[in-house]
Each structure stands twice: as C-alpha cells, then as structure tokens.
Amino acid sequence: MNPRIEDYALIGDEQSAALIGRDGSVDWLCLPRFDSGACFARLLGDENHGHWRIAPEGTDTCTRRAYRSDTLVLDTEWETSDGTVRVTDLMPQRGRAPDVVRIVEGISGRVTVRSTLRLRFDYGSVMPWMRRADGHRVAVAGPDSAWLRTEPAVDTWGEDHATHARFTVEEGERIAFVLTWHPSHEKRPPLIDPYEALEHSVTDWRRWARRCRYDGPHRDAVVRSLITLKALTYAPTGGIVAAATTSLPEQPGGVRNWDYRYCWLRDSTLTLGALLTAGYQEEAEAWRDWLLRAVAGDPADLQIMYGVAGERRLPETELPWLPGFADSAPVRTGNGAVDQLQLDVYGEVMDSLSLARGSGLPTKPHMWAMQRALLRYLETAWRQPDEGLWEVRGGRRHFVHSKVMVWVAFDRAVRTMERHPRLGGDLEGWRALRDEVHREVCEKGFDRERNTFTQYYGSRGLDAALLLIPRVGFLPPDDPRVVGTVDAIRDDLGHGGFLRRYDTRDAGSEIDGLPGAEGTFVACSFWLADALHRTGRTEEARELFDRLVGLCNDVGLLAEEYDPVDGRLLGNYPQAFSHIGLVNTALTLFGDDEAG
C-alpha cells in the first residue's frame, strides 16, 4: 500500500492523537503528549518504525469507515467472503494514563482476524523489551512502558519483533484490545473497562457537539471541524496544536517538512472567533488563558509559537533514520521558526484579547498591563523588517501583512481605551502611531500600477494574507484598493480553482529560502471566499466554499494544503488552520441568517 494523507482518520483524548489508515493500521501515535516521541511512526517510515494493525486476515483496505455521528469514535468495516467485521477505535478521556481502545465486533458470518502490534519508542528508533505479566504483554524501554491486554482474553505470541494475535469472531461477538502507556518507573495504572469507555465517549462527544449554534449549510462539516479542533486541544492547558503530525510534506519528495505539534499565535484571533461564534465559550476562555500565560514576560521575547504548556524552547532536529512520508526528507522535530521575529503576532495577541473582552469573557487583572507592555515594545520595533506570517527562511523584509497587523495592534488598543477609558494608556500616542502605520503601508506597500497591495515593500509579488485586510478593518471591503487586491491575488496565486500562499515557482525560492514548490493553501482559499463575500460577490464565495468542503476526506478531515493536479492532500494533518477556516467561512457566509 502507498497511502495518501487523506487515507488517515484521527482519534484522540485531548492530550495526544493517533492516525489510523484505511488498512486498519495505527501508523502515528505520540505519547503521552502531542509533541512526545512517537511509539508508532510508520507514517514517516515503514512497519519497522512502529504500527498496530487489526484487520481480517488476507485483506488490504477496508470496505467503509465513518465516525459515529458527532463523535471522535471511528468505525471501520470489512466485508469478506466469510462475513463482515467491524473495528471500533477510540482514545477515551484520560484518567491517569492514555489508552487506545480497539474493539473487534462480528457483524455477520465467521471472520478470522489478525492483530500485529509493533511498538517502537522514540520515533521508531527504540525497540522495547517485551514480557508477560498478569495476563498482559508489557513493553519497556527507558522511560516508556506500554501494556497490552484483551477482553475477553485471546492468545498472543511474539514473532519478528512484534506481538501477534489470530482469532475468529462470529456475529454479535466482541473482543476488545486495550493499549495503555505509562512512565516505566511507575506502577501499572488502573484498568479501564473498554466497553464502558466506548459508551461514555459516544455520550460525551455528542453532548459536546450539541452545543454548536451553527445550523446552516454544511453543518456536518462545521461540527466535524469543531470536533477536530477539540481533539487538537491539549486539555490540561487549553492550548490548541496546529496539527497532530510532524513532517508531512508540502511537496512529495521535497524538503518542506515541518513540525506542527505546537501552538501558533497567528491562529489566535481566528480560533477565538470560531469558538465564540459557534457557542464554545468555555473552550474560548481556556485558549485565551493559555495565550495570556504563554506570552507573559518581556515583550521583546514574544514568540510566534509555544509548546502545549507554553514551553519556549522548541529546538529543531532531524531524524535521519526515518525516510519520511513518500520519501520526503528530512523528518524534523521541533521548529526553528520559533526564533523568528514576526511582528504580526503582536497584532494577533491584541486582536484576540480585544475580541475576548468584547465578547464578555471574564477579564484577568493583569491583562491590560500586559497589553500596554506589548504596545510599548511595538512603538519602536514595528519599523524593523521581519520574517512574516509564513515563517520564510530567505531573510527579513518589510512584509505588508506584518505592518497591517501592527496597525491592528494600535487600533485595538485605541478602541479598547475609547470603550474603557478608566483602563488608562497613551490614547493619543496610539492614535498617532496607528495613523502613521496606515499611511506607510498605503504608500510603500501598494502597487498603484496594478491596483494591489504587495507581499512586501517594493515587491511585485503577492501574498494571500493580504485578503485579511478587510477582515481586520484596515480598509473597508468596498475600497477599490481592496477589490483590486482580491482580484490580483485570485489571478496571480490561483491554481486549479484554489489559492497558493505566495508564488514559490520563480522568486519564491528567494523569498522563503527553500527549493521546490507547495500545494494550494486551504486556509487561504477560505480567506478568498470570505473576501469575495465581503466585496459583494457572495454567489462566487459560496461556490468556492462548496468546493473547499469537497476537499475533506471521507471522514471530514483537511490537511494544510491540496494539490489540484494530483488531487491529494498535502502537509500536516489534520490542520487546525484549515478547519478554523471552514468554520469561520461558514459563519461568515451563512451565520447571520441561519445560525442559532
């Protein structure tokens, strides 16, 4: 099998997540956190890098699969000549330790099923020692330990450095496999009842999904996107990772492979808006609180991303023993972009906290003082070039989107002071800086000949992030400069009906410092739909939205990018930014009329 990214479904427990292929194999799982070492890394290598397959003997891919409605519980079915069997996969809400539950159920006939468990800790590099204890198979290596049990018991044996089981199920029979991880120096955690865990998971997810206020077109896709965002949330802190994976390529065989298992500030306003508008105030408050903790400290040290608990050190490392998905090397962990200067994040933080205050989220005593400190730093720092929203590695420039977000930072401060004058601050100074930034962007970042804003000062290139200009209020949607920018971006960056971030085909390698190209960027394509709607072309916007929803795979998941030539998803997966785009565009196009 040569799997595609869209062949995978997601399960998770809001602290980590697993990817399961159409062949019934868990090919990616990091424990105990999203950013921990993987114990199944076949996704980026082969079977010897760790996986766990349960499927009828002699089969390749499943007949059908689907999530149970409004849940993160996955049902995968195989129809064979001997009968039909279903495997139900879930990661229950965590108690002391993470569990992966896989329940095999006979639907008809009598089917022989095989389980092959090949644990490899530390991204496939460490083979554990296996032993038996108390009816379990126990794997231990260094700090990691994992226990495998079945209920009712089935025979297992070791062969080819893996744990195997072979058994039959008839109609109505169920056999549950439970894999539990814990630190090797601790005692085995309490056993869970896998069948009760299934019932509770279904009930809990459906109760959560019912809180969604959106009731417009494509509601199923919106709810699935919200469930995916919830699954990508690290529950102990409220942080939301950009994706569950690292190093899934933006171009098969290329080097644009990055670790996305961290929390980006660039996502903050869009995430907060999606959660609040859809009815998830508790999750929005948790994300806002994560944001406040993460950015606390010297404003000059503000980072573009943090770990799930707010960690700052995310050193980038290559894993040479992994060949990469579709031979796309290098495989990386950590992310060197953490050290970049991106001025737009100051605007994102100010915008997010302004939105939170305006939406009625409880304020924190130190919140405004922190915002004022950020502004004091930005008063002089905004004049610097930076690496920009897309984390380019080809040198700093005066990116127009970054300057627009600087304007947003001062604008939100002014608006907050106008509504809450008792907070105190340099209102007149902020107004003056807001106006100065606005003038400079319109003078230096606008190409009058082509009637479009540009990627950076003096550039002729374009940037899809400029589509956010009307959304953030820098200019009104009916301004001719906005309409011209939307049209120019659609013409220059359009590809197969969707949108690239910027042009990597010619000057792009100079801009981002990397060889090769990438696919169309899903979130940017949603931004185009938003911009078309705001500039009065709602019918075109809705048609584009319909096509974007059609990019979701069979279980409703989106990656970072899409290749319209080969018709395949690209980049890390599932991608929070893409699903946030889906939710926000649905709310923009249909929410006013049809949301509850």
From TrEMBL:
Catalytic activity: alpha,alpha-trehalose + H2O = alpha-D-glucose + beta-D-glucose
E.C. number(s) listed in UniProt: 3.2.1.28
Record bears the keyword Hydrolase: yes
Membership in a protein family: Belongs to the glycosyl hydrolase 15 family.
Residue ranges of every copy of the Trehalase-like N-terminal domain listed in the record: 3-154
Swiss-Prot/TrEMBL keywords: Carbohydrate metabolism, Glycosidase, Hydrolase
Pfam families from the UniProt entry: Glyco_hydro_15, TREH_N
GH15-like domain location: 216-586
GO biological process: trehalose catabolic process
InterPro entries: 6-hairpin_glycosidase_sf, 6hp_glycosidase-like_sf, GH15-like, Trehalase-like_N
Name of this protein: Trehalase
Source species: Streptomyces dangxiongensis
Pathway: Glycan degradation; trehalose degradation; D-glucose from alpha,alpha-trehalose: step 1/1
SUPFAM superfamilies per record: Six-hairpin glycosidases
Record keyword Hydrolase present: yes
GO molecular function: alpha,alpha-trehalase activity
Cofactor(s) of this protein: phosphate
